[in-house]
Design brief:
The complex is a heterodimer of chains A (523) and B (428). Chain A is mainly beta and 523 residues long. Chain A has one domain. Chain A is built from 5 helices and 21 strands. The longest helix of chain A is centred in the C-terminal third of the chain and has 18 residues, at 456-473. Chain B has helices spanning 3-21, 291-297, 390-393, 401-406, and strands at 33-39, 48-60, 66-70, 75-77, 80-92, 97-109, 112-118, 121-122, 130-135, 139-140, 146-147, 152-156, 163-164, 168-173, 191-199, 208-209, 214-218, 239-240, 262-266, 281-286, 299-308, 311-323, 327-332, 368-371, 373-376, 382-384, 394-398. The model of chain B has no long low-confidence stretch (mean pLDDT 89). Chain B is mainly beta and 428 residues long. Chain B has 4 helices and 27 strands. Chain B folds into 2 domains: 33-122, Sandwich (Immunoglobulin-like); 130-177 and 195-294 and 321-406, no CATH class. Classes of the chains: A mainly beta (523), B mainly beta (428). The interface between A and B is large, with 64 and 64 residues.
C-alpha cells in the first residue's frame, strides 16, 4: 500500500469509540451534497455514503481540515467481514498466490455543531498463501530492502489499527488534526519462522480558509513514522536455510547473505498538501500533495549495521470539475502520480571484533514511476433510483534500474475501465446498490534485463522477478460485481450486507478469483 | 484570477509534470575508482624469466562480482571493499614453468585514484603429500539427528615417486575463518597458530605412499554402519586420531584395526573432531624437531580485543605456532555467509573452500571438499590440482569418496550413492 493510500485510509477512518459517545444526529456544519442530511433516516445516510464512495476527488479529504466538507451527514457503522483471494499461479511471487482474512471494523463520522469528529478501530486476522522471496508483510512499502528466502510459505497476519480526527469550523477558518496507529504482527509456525512486527504512526494537521465563490482552500502537513522489525528463526536441529537481504530486481547484498536474521526497517515520511474544493453544487477542485520519505534497512545481528537506505519523493496532482443540474450530475478529474525512489547500499570494511566500519555508500537503485489518469462520472437521479457511469483511462510508466551488475525493468501500460452502478430506495426501510466494473490493461512497452545468476538460488530469485515482470506488463482483464443492501431496523439503526466478487485474467494465463462478504450495522 | 484559470494552470502543470517524469535519465550514476598497482618484486628470485599472462583479479566482497584486468589495462572499478589477486606465469632458467602470485585481502577502493602495492611470491612447490579430501560435515542418522565420528581426511601422493608419511603432522588452526580479530603479535607471515597436532608414527620409512596412492586419516576407524546405517566403513583407514577423554560422557573409540596417530597436542580434554561446519583451516606439516622440544619452544601468547555492547575488553591467550616453512599443505575452510579471512599466508593458501554456504547449513551433511583432478598419469593415476588456492583447487560440497566407493547413503533417508568420480565431479 502506498504512502498516499495509507494516509488516506487512516484519515478516512473514524474511531468508533469516540463517535459512539457523541449525541446522535448532531447538526451538520455544511451542506454541499443533497443526498442526505445528518438528521435523515439511517437509510438515507447509508445510501449517501455508498454514493460518496464512488465519487471523484477523494484526495482532498486526506486533509483533516477538509473533513467537515466531506459529507453533511453523520454515520457510524460496525462491520464484520471475510475476504478471500486465490490466484491460479502467483501474479507476484513475493505476494503469494492469494490469501484470506476475517475483519472487524467500527467507524464513525459525526458532525457536532462546529466540530467534526471521525474515528476508526479495526482488527483483521488472516493468512497470505505461498509467499516466497519475501518474509515481510509490507513488501511494497519496504521495497527493495526486504529479508527473503527461497522457501517462504504461508504467513499469518494480524492487523490492529486505531485512528481518529477532529476538525473545527470557526466562520471562515477550518482547522483539523488527525492521527492513527497501525500495528501488524505477521508470523509463520514452520521453518523458516519470520516474526515481523510493524508499527505505523501517522499524524496530520491542516488548516483551511473559506474563500469567495463557495471555495475552500486548505493546507495540511503530514508526518508518518514506520518501523518493521523482523526476526527469522529456525527450529530444525539440522540447520537453517539461507536468508537473503534483497536489494532490488533480484539482487541481494552478497556479503551478508546467510547472516543477519534480525533486521528492522525505519521509515519517516513528511508531506504537504494543498487542496481546493467548491462547496457549491458546481465547481472545480484541485489537489497537490508532495511527500518525502526516507528509509533505512538495518541488520540488527551485525551490531546494527545500516546495510542500505532509500529516499522516496512523491507528487500527486489532481484537478477536476463537478456540475449538478436538475437530475444530472457530472464530474471529471485528471490527475498524475509521480514518484522517484532511489536506494543506496552502504559499503563496509573488514569486521573487527564483530563491528563493520562503514567506508562508503553507493546510490545504486532507481525506481521511478509516473501515471496519469482521466476519470469521468455521470449520475442520473430518477424518482427512487440513481444510475451512474464512470469511465476512466490511465497511463502508467515504471522504470527500475539497478546499476551494477546491470539490471533494468521497464513497464509501460495503459488501462481503460468503466464502472456502472445503480441504487434504488425501495422503501423507507430498504435500499440497495449494485456496481459492475470492468477494466482492461493494455501492454505498451516492456523490458527486463537481468545478469546471469550465480547459483541455483539466484536463478530461482530471477525467475520470481521475471514472473512478476511478465504478469505486471502483460494484458489483463478484470470484472467485478458488488452488491449492497441495507434494511432499516428503525429510523436510527440499519442492518446491511455487502458482497463482492471479482475475476482477473492475465494474458500470460494466470487468473484470480476474489470475493468478500460483510455484515454491517449502521447507526 | 478565476478558478477556471487556476484549473487551467493546474492541468497544464500536471501535463508538464507527466512529461518531465518521462525522463528516465537516472540521477544515480556510480562513482568510479582508478587503481594503480605497483608490484614489489623483492621476493622474486633472480632466475625468474619474463612474465606472461599477468592479470589482476578484483573480487568485490560486497556484491560478489569479479573483475579481471590484464597487466596493461587501466583498472576502473566502483568503490568498495575488494580482495585483489595477482598471477603471472614465468619460465625459469632451468626450463620449468612457475607461477607468481600475490594477494591482498580487504582492500578499500575509494572514488578517485587508488595506489596499491602487491608483493608477489613464486609458488612454493612442496615435494610432499597433499590434502586430497576433507570430510568434516559428517552424516545424519535415520532419525535425522547428526552422527559424529565418521569425519576423515585423505592425503595423496601427487608426485612421481614414493613419499614416506612417517612424521607427517596433521593440524587444525586455532583461529576461525569466520571471526577476524587483530592479534598481537601478528605472526601470519611467519607461522600458523594451531590447536591440534597429530603425527603419523614411524621411523622414517615405515609408511611409504606410492605415487597416486591415498592415505586415509579417520576420526574413528570402525565400521560406522553398525551404529548408523547411513554412514560407512572406516575400518580400513590407515590411521585414526584417538583421544583419551577426561569426560566419561564423551569417550573416544579406539579401533583395534586402525593404528593411532601420535597425539602431540590438542586443545580439548575430551574428543577431537573436525569442525563440523567447516570454519577452520587444516594442513599437514613436517616438524623437524621432536615433540618435547616443539611443545617447549613454540608456545606463544597473543593478545586481541573483544568488542561488545558493554565495551572493548583486552584479551590474552596462548597457543602453538607452526612455522610456515615446515608446512607442506594447507586448506582453508569457511562458508560464504560468515567468511572473514584466511588463516595462513597466501603463499600457503590464498583461497578457501566450503561445504554449505551459511552457518549451520543443513545441506552440508554427506558432503566433503575434494581436490580437483586435472589429468592422469600414464599409470592412470589422477593428477590433482595444487596451486595453493583452495578456491580453485577444490571442488566444494561434493559427495565424499568413501561414500562413492562404498555406495553408502547420501542423505538421511538412506538413498544409496550411485556416482563414482575422481574428485566429486569428474566421472571415474
Amino acid at each position: 500500500m502506498s504512502q498516499f493510500k495509507v494516509r488516506q485510509y487512516i484519515i478516512f477512518s473514524a474511531m468508533a469509540a469516540i463517535a459512539s459517545a457523541l449525541p446522535e444526529g448532531a447538526a451538520a456544519a455544511t451542506s454541499t451534497v443533497p443526498d442526505a442530511d445528518s438528521t435523515g433516516s439511517v437509510i438515507s445516510r447509508t445510501l449517501a455514503e455508498s454514493r460518496r464512495q464512488l465519487r471523484l476527488n477523494t484526495a482532498a479529504f486526506s486533509n483533516p481540515a477538509m473533513m467537515p466538507l466531506r459529507q453533511d451527514y453523520s454515520l457510524g457503522s460496525i462491520r464484520a467481514g471475510w475476504e478471500s483471494r486465490r490466484e491460479s499461479r502467483p501474479f507476484a511471487v513475493e505476494a503469494g498466490h492469494g490469501g484470506y482474512a476475517g475483519s472487524f471494523d467500527a467507524s464513525a463520522y459525526y458532525h457536532n455543531g462546529s466540530a467534526t469528529l471521525w474515528g476508526d478501530a479495526a482488527y483483521s486476522n488472516g493468512r497470505r498463501l505461498g509467499q516466497r522471496w519475501n518474509e515481510s508483510a509490507d513488501f511494497d512499502r519496504l521495497y527493495p530492502y526486504v529479508t527473503a528466502d527461497s522457501i517462504g510459505g504461508d504467513l499469518n497476519c494480524e492487523r490492529y489499527s486505531f485512528a481518529g480526527g477532529y476538525a473545527h469550523t470557526a466562520r471562515r477558518v477550518i482547522w483539523g488534526v488527525c492521527g492513527g496507529y497501525t500495528a501488524v504482527l505477521s508470523y509463520r509456525n514452520v521453518d523458516p519462522r519470520p516474526r515481523d512486527i510493524t508499527g505505523d504512526l501517522t499524524i496530520a494537521i491542516g488548516a483551511g480558509y473559506r474563500a469567495a465563490f463557495g471555495y475552500t482552500a486548505a493546507l495540511a502537513l503530514y508526518f508518518d513514522k514506520f518501523r518493521q522489525s523482523s526476526d527469522i528463526a529456525f527450529m530444525s536441529e539440522l540447520g537453517v536455510s539461507k536468508i537473503y537481504h534483497l536489494t532490488g530486481l533480484g539482487s541481494h547484498y552478497y556479503r551478508f547473505a546467510g547472516t543477519g536474521t534480525s533486521t528492522y526497517n525505519d521509515c519517516h515520511s513528511y508531506g504537504l498538501s494543498l487542496n481546493l474544493i467548491s462547496e457549491r453544487e458546481s465547481g472545480a477542485f484541485l489537489n497537490a500533495d508532495i511527500s518525502l520519505t526516507d528509509q533505512t534497512h538495518v541488520i540488527e545481528d551485525l551490531n546494527r549495521l545500516p546495510m542500505a537506505s532509500l529516499w522516496h519523493k512523491e507528487l500527486n496532482l489532481s484537478a477536476g470539475w463537478r456540475q449538478s443540474a436538475g437530475r444530472h450530475r457530472m464530474e471529471a478529474e485528471i490527475g498524475a502520480r509521480i514518484y522517484r525512489r532511489h536506494g543506496s547500499e552502504n559499503i563496509f570494511g573488514d569486521a573487527t571484533s564483530g563491528t563493520y566500519p562503514q567506508i562508503g555508500s553507493l546510490e545504486i537503485l532507481a525506481d521511478n514511476h509516473h501515471s496519469e489518469y482521466l476519470r469521468l462520472l455521470y449520475e442520473l437521479y430518477l424518482d427512487r433510483t440513481m444510475i451512474g457511469i464512470s469511465p476512466y483511462a490511465t497511463l502508467s510508466h515504471r522504470r527500475t534500474v539497478y546499476l551494477t551488475p546491470r539490471r533494468d525493468r521497464l513497464i509501460d501500460t495503459a488501462s481503460i475501465g468503466m464502472e456502472l452502478y445503480a441504487d434504488r430506495r425501495f422503501s423507507d426501510r430498504l435500499c440497495a446498490m449494485l456496481t459492475l466494473s470492468a477494466s482492461h490493461r493494455i501492454p505498451r512497452t516492456s523490458l527486463l534485463e537481468l545478469p546471469a545468476p550465480g547459483d541455483a538460488a539466484e536463478a530461482d530469485l530471477h525467475e520470481a522477478v521475471t514472473t512478476g515482470f511478465l504478469n505486471a506488463s502483460c494484458g489483463a482483464t478484470s470484472f467485478s460485481a458488488e452488491a449492497k443492501a441495507d434494511c432499516a431496523l428503525s429510523r436510527r439503526y440499519a442492518l446491511g450486507v455487502r458482497a463482492r466478487i471479482g475475476y482477473t485474467r492475465l494474458s500470460t494465463s494466470p487468473h484470480a478469483l476474489e470475493w468478500s462478504a460483510a455484515a454491517v450495522f449502521s447507526f | 484570477m478565476t478558478i477556471h484559470k487556476i484549473l487551467l494552470w493546474l492541468s497544464a502543470a500536471i501535463c508538464c509534470a507527466a512529461i518531465t517524469a518521462c525522463d528516465d535519465s537516472l540521477e544515480a550514476s556510480l562513482p568510479q575508482a582508478e587503481v594503480v598497482i605497483d608490484l614489489d618484486m623483492a621476493d622474486i628470485p633472480e632466475d625468474t624469466g619474463s612474465l606472461h599472462d599477468a592479470k589482476f583479479t578484483f573480487r568485490n566482497i560486497s556484491n560478489g562480482t569479479t573483475s579481471v584486468y590484464y597487466a596493461d589495462e587501466e583498472i576502473s572499478l566502483i568503490p568498495g571493499l575488494y580482495d585483489v589477486d595477482y598471477s603471472a606465469t614465468c619460465l625459469l632458467s632451468n626450463g620449468v614453468m612457475a607461477t607468481l602470485r600475490a594477494q591482498q585481502q580487504s582492500v578499500t577502493i575509494t572514488q578517485g585514484r587508488n595506489n596499491l602495492t602487491l608483493r608477489p611470491y613464486r609458488n612454493i612447490e612442496s615435494d610432499d603429500l597433499i590434502i586430497a579430501e576433507i570430510f568434516f560435515a559428517g552424516t545424519l542418522q535415520t532419525s535425522g539427528n547428526q552422527y559424529y565420528g565418521d569425519d576423515y581426511v585423505k592425503l595423496y601422493n601427487n608426485t612421481d615417486h614414493v613419499i614416506y608419511a612417517d612424521g607427517l603432522t596433521f593440524f587444525e588452526s586455532k583461529f576461525l575463518t569466520t571471526q577476524k580479530l587483530t592479534f598481537t603479535p601478528d605472526i601470519m607471515s611467519e607461522a600458523m597458530t594451531v590447536q591440534a597436532l597429530y603425527t603419523i608414527p614411524g621411523s622414517g620409512t615405515d609408511h611409504p605412499v606410492q605415487p597416486g596412492e591415498y592415505l586415509l586419516l579417520a576420526d574413528t576407524g570402525i565400521d560406522h554402519r553398525a551404529i548408523n546405517p547411513n554412514s560407512f566403513d572406516l575400518s580400513h583407514a590407515d590411521f585414526e586420531w584417538y583421544d583419551v577423554s577426561s569426560s566419561p560422557s564423551t569417550m573416544d573409540i579406539d579401533s583395534p584395526s586402525v593404528p593411532n596417530l601420535d597425539k602431540w597436542y590438542c586443545y580439548t580434554q575430551t574428543v577431537f573432531m573436525l569442525h563440523n561446519r567447516g570454519f577452520k583451516t587444516y594442513g599437514i606439516a613436517r616438524i623437524p624437531i621432536d615433540r618435547e622440544q616443539y611443545l617447549a619452544d613454540y608456545y606463544y601468547t597473543y593478545e586481541y580485543e573483544t568488542v561488545t555492547a558493554a565495551g572493548t575488553f583486552p584479551m590474552s591467550q596462548s597457543a602453538y605456532r607452526l612455522p610456515n616453512e615446515w608446512i607442506a599443505d594447507v586448506v582453508n575452510c569457511s562458508v560464504q555467509a560468515e567468511y572473514q579471512w584466511t588463516l595462513c599466508t597466501p603463499a600457503l593458501d590464498m583461497g578457501w573452500t566450503h561445504c554449505g554456504t551459511i552457518d549451520k547449513d543443513k545441506t552440508r551433511y554427506f558432503h566433503s571438499v575434494r581436490r580437483k583432478a586435472i589429468g592422469f598419469t600414464p599409470d592412470g593415476n589422477p593428477i590433482l590440482q595444487d596451486t595453493n588456492n583452495s578456491t580453485l583447487d577444490f571442488n566444494p560440497m561434493v559427495i565424499p569418496s568413501e561414500i562413492e566407493d562404498q555406495h553408502s547413503a547420501i542423505d538421511a533417508t538412506g538413498t544409496p550413492c550411485t556416482s563414482l568420480t575422481w574428485d566429486g565431479v569428474t566421472p571415474r
